[in-house]
Write a structure and sequence with these properties.
With about 450 residues, this protein is α+β, with helices and mostly antiparallel strands. It has helices spanning about 1-20, 25-65, 140-145, 285-295, 310-315, 320-335, 345-365, 370-390, 395-415, 420-440, and strands spanning about 70-90, 90-100, 105-120, 120-135, 155-160, 175, 180-185, 185, 195-200, 215-225, 225-230, 235-240, 250, 255-260, 265-270, 280-285, 300. The strands form two sheets. Strands 1, 2, 5, 8, 9, 11, 13, 16 and 17 form a nine-stranded mixed beta sheet that branches. Strands 7-6-10-4-3-12-15-14 form an eight-stranded mixed beta sheet. The longest helix is centred in the N-terminal third of the chain and has 44 residues, at about 25-65.
């Protein structure tokens, strides 16, 4: 009986000795498990950021629906009907076709007056614009095309203008063509490049000759977010000015000249017919040409200066790094300082680090990303530093944690601001961090208590 008890005691001592010998490794495995566990609230906050971003887009879309959507101005251009003959079941049939004649010169001078509307906590930028559009048409391109000019119905021609959202029109639209003024009717009557817009039926018998037809029109147009133009002219010139200090020039063509100040901007584009993939005369049944026209737009996007959701998404991608390094420092502090820190205390510190991103997101919607990041960082660093001071009872360890988190949050903030060099700075930073961890880890005796 005594031998049995001695054997049990010896086995117990060996088990305890083995656990003590590998206690550091076991603690490292527990910490790794806690990091994986913290991925759950991390993903929840990442989904929350995406949800708030969708809510913002819905709010912007709702304001746009009530004010007017982003506008694309296509035109003016001339639509000429002509008969199309085709065979069907051995019977010759005739249907109506459409030929689009684009202007030789298209010049647009525009002034944008922007203002900010609110939908709850979200801001939406809208604008009112005054556009002067002028140039001239000629029949030269019709002569160059394969269209039989004798079949064209000049007396039933239509002058067309496509817009994205008709609610943006503030006044009646008319055009001075040659010496006559024509008032546009709503809708396209299936005679346009797109179905949304206005048109006017006119007699263009003058196009049978070589006479040029000058035109001029003024439009007062509302919209939101952006305004774009389609380069229909043989030479298209657009000159835009607006009271917005952070424009983004979008589309297939960048402006030749631009000037951006702290209050406004101005930009000038010049696009030749050689720069695009369609001619001055287009037959509507050629769908490839219509697609090329719709994809040739250019213009300006009046974007908001800060997108806090995009920056929040970028910042949370570094959350695992911050949690892992913080746990590593706590672990080294526990071993080198002969302190005892429970796994639950690790978990509480990790939750505080994850809560940082929720604080940052909620505050950024009201005070901007940069200020929200600063406030959330200070609160999180103070919370974790104070908690560590209460746990290990050593000021040096607590100040080390405060310094580490301060460096990490500053490093991540710099990475978020960088664009071109973000990958390079991130890779170099991670290399330095790994080298530091490797340096301190070699000072630990992993196989003794």
């Amino acid at each position: 009986m005594e031998n049995l008890n001695d054997n049990l005691n010896e086995t117990k001592r060996q088990t305890v000795g083995c656990l003590q010998r590998f206690s550091k490794s076991i603690k490292a495995v527990v910490i790794a498990f806690l990091v994986l566990l913290l991925l759950i609230p991390m993903f929840m906050i990442e989904n929350l950021i995406s949800e708030r971003e969708r809510t913002q887009k819905d709010a912007m879309a709702e304001v746009g629906q009530k004010w007017s959507l982003a506008q694309t101005v296509t035109g003016p251009y001339i639509n000429l009907e002509y008969p199309i003959t085709y065979e069907e079941n051995g019977i010759t049939k005739v249907s109506k076709g459409n030929v689009f004649l684009f202007p030789d010169e298209l010049s647009v001078d525009g002034q944008l007056n922007t203002e900010i509307l609110r939908r709850g906590i979200y801001k939406v930028n809208v604008y009112k614009s005054e556009l002067l559009i002028k140039g001239y048409f000629s029949s030269e391109e019709l002569r160059k095309s394969n269209v039989d000019r004798n079949l064209l119905e000049y007396n039933k021609a239509a002058i067309c203008l496509n817009l994205t959202d008709m609610r943006g029109l503030s006044e009646q639209v008319s055009i001075r063509l040659n010496d006559s003024v024509y008032v546009f009717e709503s809708g396209m009557d299936e005679r346009g490049i797109d179905n949304m817009g206005v048109h006017a039926i006119i007699d263009l018998s003058a196009l049978k000759g070589d006479k040029k037809l000058p035109y001029e029109m003024r439009i007062k147009l509302k919209g939101s977010q952006s305004i774009s133009f389609t380069p229909l002219g043989k030479v298209t010139k657009v000159n835009l000015k607006g009271n917005w200090n952070s424009p983004s020039f979008d589309g297939n063509y960048l402006p030749e000249k631009r000037e951006i100040t702290g209050k406004d901007f101005s930009a000038q584009w010049k696009v030749l017919n050689l720069n695009r993939n369609y001619s001055q005369v287009v037959v509507k049944d050629k769908n490839d040409s219509i697609s090329d026209i719709k994809n040739s737009n250019f213009g300006v996007n009046l974007k908001m200066p800060v997108d806090q959701y995009q920056q929040s998404t970028r910042s949370i991608k570094y959350a695992v790094l911050i949690v892992l390094l913080t746990f590593t420092v706590i672990f080294f502090t526990e071993i080198m300082g002969k302190a005892r820190i429970h796994a639950l205390q690790y978990l509480l510190v990790g939750l505080a680090l994850i809560l940082f991103y929720s604080l940052q997101l909620s505050m950024s919607e009201h005070i901007g990303f940069n200020m929200a990041y600063l406030v959330a960082s200070i609160l999180t660093i103070a919370l974790v530093g104070g908690y560590m001071l209460g746990v290990v009872k050593k000021q040096k360890s607590a100040f080390t944690m405060v310094g580490l988190l301060g460096i990490l949050y500053t490093y991540v903030f710099i990475l978020i601001q960088l664009e071109t060099y973000a990958l390079l700075a991130g890779s170099l930073g991670l290399f330095v961090i790994l080298a530091t961890v490797m340096y301190f880890s070699k000072k630990i005796d992993w196989f003794n208590e």
